[in-house]
Amino acid sequence: MRQAIIAFLLSAFVFPGMGQLYNQDRRKGIILVLLTNFCFGVLLLAGLALFSRGYYEYFYPKPLTWDVVRELFRYLLGSPFFFLPLSLLLGLWIFAALDAARRARRGAPATPTEE
User: Fold this and answer.
1) Quick one: which of 94, 81, 105 has its CA closest to 23?
2) Class of residue 13 by CB neighbours under 10 A (exposed 0-12, middle 13-18, buried 19+)
3) For tag attachment on the chain, is the N or C end more exposed, with fewer CB atoms within 10 Å?
4) Measured distance CA(99)–CA(12) in Å, rounded
5) Is 87 a residue whose pLDDT tops 60?
């Protein structure tokens, strides 16, 4: 039970895939780490592109104040190009945490038989 809690906390609060690596499920852990990094990259690029586009289209002559930034974040969160990668990242993060705890409760992952 303690191993399940540690695996869950690693994947939930440190980084997705760390709980799988703690459970010695290396393949799934590496895949989750790579997918999470890819989602972070897409989210960062989409966020920066939409943020700069929104600023230049709607607020360019004005200086960048906190009120303008707040409006730009509302615009950003309303865009599907930002919301879809964000929801995919959150879903991946939740899956990794729950899978790490479930796998730790079951025991060690199945290892291929050596010939």
Assistant:
1) 105
2) exposed
3) C
4) 10
5) yes
